[in-house]
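Task: complex structure prediction.
Instruction: return structure tokens for all chains below.
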Amino acid sequence: MSDEYLWDRTGPVDPEVADLEALLGRYGGQAVSEPPAPWRAGRDREAFGVRRWPASALAAAAVLALAVGIAWMGPTGPTVVREVGSWRLTALDGTPRIASRPVDAGLVAPGAWIETDATSTAQLDVGDAGRVIIAPHSKLRITRTSPGDHRMHLDHGSIEALIWAPPGQVVLSTPGATAVDLGCAYSLTTDASGHGSLVVTAGWVGLLHDGREAFIPADASVAVYGDAGPGIPTTATASAALVAAVRAFDTASDAAGRTRAFGDILALAAPGDALTLWHLLDRVAPQERGRVHDGLAVVLDPPPGVTRAGVVAGDRVMIDAWWSALGYGDVEWWRLWRRDWHPVTEPTR
Amino acid sequence: VRLVEAARAGDGGAFDELYRRYRRLVHGVLLSRVPPADAEDLLQEVFLQAWRHLHGLRTSAAFGGWLVAMARHRAIDHLRAQLHAEPLADPGHAASAEEDVRAAQALAAIRTLPEAYRETLLLRLVEGMTGPEIARQTGLTPGSVRVNLCRGMKLLRERLAGGDSHVG
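Output:
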């Protein structure tokens, strides 16, 4: 059966696709009623059913209106402006500390360490950019904050980040890597020497360390190895044997072990492991790249214009084109946001 | 791009038009994670959030991808707040008739797929968008969308047939 109907409804009708369209159309958003939109203030406000707005949206609108109102009425409104754009910590369990002082809730200044002990968990609202849940036994601080540029450093411990700022605006460094949010939700764990892991649950994260890059989309994870930086990511559907081979490759201390792990990865990779094989292209010597090309080509056809010779030669355009064919999003996203990102030297402890 | 720039300058009418053009996209992304009734409410929240934060969007052409990211985050936040797993079927669509049961099963099956396939298939089969429309609005390449549709549909056929498969 041709997939033209699935693609754009041209070509012969695929009866199974048509059946699903008819069946699932009832859930579609086209029929959702018009909202009482604040951007239409003053027009037909009363005509819209306010009941349809969830309480959280009304609360958000009220906070916004209050902030705007106070800023407009006051001489300068600096307090409100600072509050809206500030970093607020709230204890979820136990008593976290800001700059060694126990707190239940409070604003956090850049540079002050936030610490949780064995029994405390904290929520850090990153201005209007997102939210970070800080797990027990963690130490984190804000290293820079300005409109469109929020940076944190996790010395050790675990966090869950949920970021709704535009991609590239929230950067979290650890001793082993720097995570650039590309519109996502993720969990990150590290010890003080930079060993840890990253699991992405939505969107994707770019990891960077000393020129080594890793792109981790939703449903994928990666280990981070201190000074060696991020390893090779694997997807949630990867077999345990493949994950073990990837870890062996990442940590091999001798040529024989690395060669054996390299062969295992190529032998064990399944169609869902294109992400892993793609990263392998940048982690092997040029003379090994041909084998990776061949393995990747088995699970995902090279896009037009991508040749074996080009990939072996490390042609960035070709390798990026293959990434874009993986279905995780265009690598240009990363390139675009990376251009705006500049490393910062982390403060000493 | 002109609409996004106008909306960023405070033109509510332009944002209204963006809402109409992109609401299927946002709704589809939400529906891949939350029940249909919740998706309707969250749809409005996402656009409210977008209106509030539009000044932070540096690249107007990335508007669709930016909305998708916010929708994903809002859905995850919503699920976190619920504490317990949501039922897959929409309580508002009681599965009393055979069609309702089949629809709920098909929706549940799609929601078991990996994110890239799940969202793209929902946009195609539920929201009625074509592949080129999905590519245009999300900022993904047409090739990526086509791959997601084909692989996602293959997996969905297998799952609806009672089989299971790892993602390919």
